Amino acid sequence: MLRAVRTVVPRVPALVHGSHMSTVPQVCIVGSGPAGFYTAQQILKSHPAAQVDMYEKLPTPFGLVRYGVAPDHPEVKNCINTFTQTAGQERFAFLGNVEVGRNVLLHQLREAYHAVVLAYGASEDRALGVPGESVANVLSARRFVGWYNGLPGDAYLPVSLDVESAVVVGHGNVAVDVARILLTPIDILRKTDIPECVLAALAQSRVRRVVLVGRRGPEHVALTIKELREMVRLPGCRPNLQPNDYLHLRQLIPSLPRPRKRLLELLAKTALDEPDPKLASAYASAEREWSLRFLRSPVEVLSSDGQRVSGLRLVKNRLEGEEGQQRAVPTEEMETLECGLVLRSIGYRGLLLDASLPFDYHTATIANTDGRVTGHSGLYVSGWIATGPVGVILSTMTSGFNTGKAVVADLEAGAADKDQGKGGGKAIKRLLSDKGVEVVSFDKWLRLDQHEVEAGARLGKPREKVTSWQRMVELTR
After folding, report:
1. What is the rounded radius of gyration, in angstroms, for the C-alpha atoms of the chain?
2. What gap in Å lies between CA 281 and CA 233, rounded to an integer?
3. Of 20, 343, 362, nearest to 176 (Cα)?
4. What pLDDT shows up at residue 29?
5. Would you state the pLDDT for residue 417?
6. Contact at 8 Å (CB) between 57 and 2?
7. Which residues of the chain fall short of a pLDDT of 70?
């Protein structure tokens, strides 16, 4: 959740002085999402003395669990219970409302800690890179997700739902999430933690059709079966799938691994078989629909007035290469989809936090081996900034655990930092105090958490998120 801000400071005074130095291993984690918390959990469990301090730009912890998981998937957020237990340990401290790269610099953290773990994720989206992309109502799915999840920076996203058709570019779970939120009956959404102001906008939405566009074929979709099953059975909504797109799947399915086989079996069944009578009746009365378009890539965003999107021009692709390594190659054939909203969901990108880091601009990750940053002793990465934006919370947990083990191994071997005395969080807190930065501890966050839960209870929902950054900080005092 951290935004990189490059700042150059010629000379910075030392942060550690004599009696303030600690020989207890001091570990700092930048980012409080799943990668950060799983790394902290592993370190605290495996090292009997290490102190772990976690820095977060926002006043709130949990990163994409709070601001990225779909509101109608509350069960996915259960890992917050584990994270809260980790945060309650005596050797852990949360420092929210602190932006690394602005309030404190990376080299200052490295001076104060024996080990620094960067776990700040991938907070930028990939652009389509086509003409017309800058017109109104062409938005990233990342920001749209932030909007309906109450992320302060996206709370006032300029999105208009006064349109009948929307196009989502992408066939992954995030693309399906935004399509589902657009099409789900408002009475169902009212029971989630979507902020009231967003619910009001969704209640007035005129969106009736959502088309999800992908550059390759149905066998290459990146969504998972749970998300597909939800779309197939979405109340008040029906699928509109072209049978010819799916006929070849049944030849491929028998040779596929089980998870992929089950996904494509459901996709083929939905497209090619008659639905059961109950589902058929529901589809017949449905007023909304979704569809999947394959072998298509955007080449231009169209606008009838030069101000707002009116359509998306697509090039038809063909597949080249061996099975499993096929790539989409454009043909000369084009088509146009009329729409009033375009959401791009083609991947997230990590940001460079500091110019000294070995950053791979192609993959938008920090170069590392098993979590150890290349060429930087005592510096580590965890989660998407290490691996790229792939997988789900389970894969992030694996990354966090592996990085945590690397940190502990290096601390025990004396390889993390040869300087035994470090100022740790005490030194950084003095620096932040001198700058007037109001640090939000985990106990202070719990006050905001209680406020949101109580406000939500009055509305019959899990919580009512505070979307104003300033109000958040006020409620933690």
Report:
1. 24
2. 12
3. 343
4. 98
5. 57
6. yes
7. 1-22, 415-420
